[in-house]
Amino acid sequence: MFTGIIAAVGRIAERTPREAGVRLTIDAGTLDLSDVALGDSIACNGVCLTVVELGPRTFKVDVSPESLSCTVGLEGDGPINLEKALRLADRLGGHLVSGHVDGVGEVLAFDAIGDNRRLVIRAPAELARYIARKGSIAVNGVSLTTNTVDGRDLAINLIPHTLDNTTLHLLAAGAKVNLEVDLIARYAERMLNADTESEVAA
Fold it and tell me: Each residue of 104-144: pLDDT tens digit?
């Protein structure tokens, strides 16, 4: 599990094709790797990946064809948001994030409002019901709060701190982003529909 509070911006330094998927070498940037071990999870642009090799300032992860097919931001050599997995003693500064991307959204607008930015994203139709005004959503692994929701479109205000410490300042209209909806919304829907699904199954 993660919090959506980005610890560092890294960069994909190398991309090696494998029989299934690819192996990425990630330059960790300022991310502290001193307490990272093989098998640990690190969220890369919101995608939970397992560390398979460690260097002094780099780590390697394997990305499956399935993950590549339903995410963005792991196909090139650009900067990526990094967050180590949550420890039980850590503060939950953002919201509970699993690192399992639910879908890819499209940026409709990225407008300056003073030194803030108004980010408008169109979510896939199947995710729209999980997105609520003043609710939580992870965009490229960053925990954010929705200001407004209109059908599939959600608007978010990005403050200077977020812009300075994540890759979100690089967004523009037409860009694709990884989206993970709030876990609580998914479980609430499951509980509400459990009786109906049981009746259908019977």
Answer: 999 999 999 999 999 999 999 999 999 999 999 999 999 99
**Closest residue by Cα to residue 178 from 129, 117, 106:** 106
- Ranges in the chain, pLDDT < 70: 195-202
The CATH number of 103-183, from 3.90.1640.10, 3.90.1150.10, 2.40.30.10, 2.40.30.20, is 2.40.30.20
Sign, Cα dihedral of 156, 157, 160, 162: negative
Phi, psi of 17 (to 5 degrees): -65, 145
Joined together, the tokens standing for residue 60 give 């390697």
Alpha helix stretches (DSSP H) within 115-172: 160-165
**Fold that domain 8-84 belongs to in CATH:** Elongation Factor Tu (Ef-tu); domain 3 (2.40.30)
Q: Where are the alpha helices (DSSP H) in the chain?
A: 65-69, 160-165, 183-201
